[in-house]
Amino acid sequence: MAEGRAAAVISRLGQITREMNDRRALRERNAAQHREAARERLLMQGKVAERATQHLSELNRRQKAAGGWATGKALANKDNVMGFGPEDDDSRQKEPFPGYPVPSSSVPPPVSTAPPTAPEQPAAQQPTQTRKFSRSVAPREPEPEAPKPPPPPRPARRRREEVFDDEDFSNNSWMQ
Amino acid sequence: MSTALHPVVAERAEDIRRLVCKVLEVDADQVEDTDLFVETLGADSMKLIELLAHLEVEFDIEVDEDELERLVNIEGVFAVLSAALGG
């Protein structure tokens, strides 16, 4: 009787142990699957993030190349942005005087060695000789000129302020 | 769409729709192929770049950034993928 009960208990324990082992195996298998799925998702997200970063960097580079404008026209004409046409030619820019012949020697132009001319001095006044003549041969002294009559009085100036009209251009003095 | 779909794109069309809806965080049942991502589904430029990156990784292809202009709806996604896959 007791042996039968013990055998039943042992059998029941073995059954429970097997069930627990099966459950543990199932749990471990599910965990492994989830770990693998999570790892793949993480790798996928890493690749996606890397690609997205590359795209963002490329878009940023193109925007900067287009002068900071992200419009479609600026990005489409990125080769000509900030260009100045033929003036962009480097060979022309290297010439000091583009379009003019370059002298063969690099001798600097001659410098004038003549001393600088002194500023002209005003002619020295010659001392006047005073000759004495007798009264009979003495030259006649010129008679003093009569004083000129005073100039006629000029007509009084018109006051420009009175005739200037901002609205009527035909009246302005500079239009007449 | 006037562009012929690549066989791979035609075969995985449902996966592509699911991927687009997952990236744009919208319900797949309420999205039509002609629904505009930005105007209708409320996506922004960052979402479109993320979608482009997802498509590149999923199909192991490289797509130029200029193709973002064509990623306006699911049909545009099909066209871009078909062009990238050589269809």
UniProtKB/TrEMBL annotation, chain B:
Q: InterPro entries, alphabetically?
A: ACP-like_sf (IPR036736), PP-bd_ACP (IPR009081), Ppantetheine_attach_site (IPR006162)
Q: Where is the Carrier domain?
A: 10-85
Show the coiled coil region(s): none
PROSITE patterns in alphabetical order: CARRIER, PHOSPHOPANTETHEINE
Is this entry keyworded Translocase? no
Keyword terms: Phosphopantetheine, Phosphoprotein
Top-rank taxon: Bacteria
Which SUPFAM superfamilies does the record match to this protein?
A: ACP-like (SSF47336)
Record-given protein name: Polyketide-8 synthase acyl carrier protein
Species this protein is from: Saccharomonospora viridis
